[in-house]
Amino acid sequence: MVRLVANDSTGTLAWRPDGAAPPLSVAAGALPRWSPNGTRLASFQPGDTVVTLLAGGTTRVVRLDGAVTGLSWTPAGDGLYATILHDDGATSLVRIDTVGTVAFVRDALDASPAFNTIAIPPDGRTVYLALAGDSLPNVKVRHDPEAPHRDLDIFSMSLPDGRLRRVAGTVGDDFAPVLADGALYWTHNDPSAEVVVLPIAGGEPHAIADHGFFPRWSPDGRAVAFTRGYFRIADYGLDMDGWVVDLDTAGKATGPPRAWITGFGEDMGPVWSPDGRWVAYHSHRSATPVPLYASPGRTDDQWLRLTAGGPEIRVTDFGFEVGPPVWAPDGRRLLFDSWEHDGIPRMAKLWITTIDPATGKALGSKKVPLPVGVLGVNGEAWSPDGTTIAFVQRIDETHQALWTVHPDGGGAHRLAEFPGFTIGGLGWTPDGRTLVYAAVAGDHMEIFGIGATGGAPWQITHGTVNAMHPQVSPDGRLLAASRIPWRKELRRLQLP
C-alpha cells in the first residue's frame, strides 16, 4: 500500500510505501507512477522532457529527446515504457530501465499530442496505445477539415516486432487505455457541435450547420459565419476554418455551408465589419503547414481580409491565446481578449486595435483598464451604440461574472455572477437593452438574458445539451448559438 504522508510548503507531494522510509517526493503538478511492488516511483510533467526515478533514497533524472506524453511501468517492475512527442508531430515509444538507460522501441507513431496512457498486459509482450492511424499522415492533411477525420482509436502493438493492430475504434476519439481484471477500458468522446437558430424569446432550435460553433450574423441578417472544426485530439485546432451559411428570413439554411476563411492553422470567429466590407478573424496562420497546434512558425493574432477576397492583413503581433474579434459599430475598432506572455495563464486582458477602414491596416492597439479585482476576461461584446463593452469575468475555475464598462475603463458595473467553466460567449440585442450569455444550469450550459443595466436574469433555452455562444440577429428576432453535446463514455473490451 502507498500512502500520501505530506504536502509540504515547497509544493511537493511526499509518499511512503508501507515499510519504506524516507518518503518519496513528487514535484507539484507531476504525475506519479508506482512500480508494481510499490518500491520505486517514477514521475513526469506531461509535455516536459524529463522522467524522474526514485528508489532506495536515489534519484535519477532521465532526459529524453521530446515531450513525455505517457508513462507506464512494465508488469515485472523492471522498467517503464514512455511515449515521446517530437517537434515533427511523430511519437516514439521508448523503454527506460531502472537505472535510467533509454532504449528505442518504435518511432513514427501517429499518437495523441496530449497526455495519454499506456496499457500493458501481465505478459509484457503487448502495449495498448491511442493512435490516429498506423502510419504518419502528410502534415498538410492535419489542416484539412474536409479530409477523413483523424480520430484516435485503440491499437495494440506487439513488442517483439512492433506490429500494430486496431482493436477498438468508432467515430470520435477513443483514448486513455487501461487494463483491469482481464479487460481493456478506455474513454470515448465525440462532441458533434452544430450551429442552431431559435426565436429570441425561446423555443425549439433548428440546426443550420454541423460541426460548427461560434456563430456571427451578417449585417443584413441573411447569413451566419461560424467556425468549423471536429475537436479531434490528434489535430486539435489545425483543422478549424471559417465557414458561412446563407439563411432565409425565418433563419433556415437555403443551401449547404461553404468554406470562407481557410489556410494553414486555426481560423476562428470570422465576423463581418458593420458595412460588410471586411471580415476579421483570429488565426494561427502559418506560411506552411505545421504538425502541431503549438509548433513554431504559427501566429496567434487578429487578421483582416476583404469579404470579397484578397490578401490577408495581420493587424496584431502580440497575441497569446487570442480570442475571436468583435467590431465596434463605427467599423474602426476591433475588440478582443488575449493572454499576456508575462501574465497569469488563462487570465486574458481586453484589447482594442484601431483599423483604417479604407486600407485595413492597424493604427495601434491599447489595453482596456479592467475594474479593480478583475484579473481575467472570458469573452466580450460591444454595445450597438459603441459606448459600452460587456465582458465576462473569469473569477476561478467554476465561477464567472458579467460586467459592463466604457472603452476607457470607466463606468464599470457588475451585472451578475453565475457558474461557468469555459468560454460561453455573450451578445447584445440590437436595441442595446438586453445582454445574452451562457451559464451552467444543472449539468450543462444554457443561454440566459439579462437587462443591460442589471436585474434578474431569465433562461432562454431549455435543452439537454450545452447551448453556448449566443448572438442576436440584426432585426432582434432570432438567436444563433452553438449546441455542443459533450459527453464522455467509459468503454470496455474483454480480452481473450
Strand content: over 45%
Q: Which regions have little confidence, pLDDT < 50, spanning 5+ residues?
A: 1-14
CATH superfamily of the largest domain: TolB, C-terminal domain
What is the name of the CATH architecture of the largest domain? 6 Propeller
Helix content: under 10%
The general outline is elongated
Global mean pLDDT: 92
What is the rounded Rg?
Answer: 25 Å
Distance between the termini: 30 Å
| Structural class label | mainly beta
Instruction: Please describe the biggest sheet, giving its number of strands, its sense, and whether it closes into a barrel.
Output: 7 strands, antiparallel
The number of helical segments is: 0
Number of domains: 2
> Briefly, what CATH class of the largest domain?
Mainly Beta
As laid out across the biggest beta sheet, the strand order is 8-9-10-11-12-13-14
Number of strands: 41
CATH-defined topology of the largest domain = Neuraminidase
Itemize the secondary structure elements and their pairings.
Blueprint: E1 2-7, E2 13-17, E3 24-26, E4 31-34, E5 40-44, E6 50-55, E7 58-63, E8 67-73, E9 79-85, E10 91-97, E11 102-111, E12 126-133, E13 153-158, E14 164-168, E15 173-180, E16 183-189, E17 194-199, E18 206-210, E19 212-217, E20 223-228, E21 241-246, E22 258-261, E23 267-272, E24 278-283, E25 301-306, E26 313-314, E27 326-327, E28 333-338, E29 349-355, E30 362-367, E31 377-382, E32 389-394, E33 399-405, E34 413-419, E35 426-428, E36 434-441, E37 444-451, E38 458-459, E39 466-472, E40 478-484, E41 488-494
Antiparallel strand pairs: 1-2, 2-3, 4-5, 5-6, 6-7, 8-9, 9-10, 10-11, 11-12, 12-13, 13-14, 15-16, 16-41, 17-18, 17-40, 19-20, 20-21, 21-22, 23-24, 24-25, 25-26, 27-28, 28-29, 29-30, 31-32, 32-33, 33-34, 35-36, 36-37, 37-38, 39-40
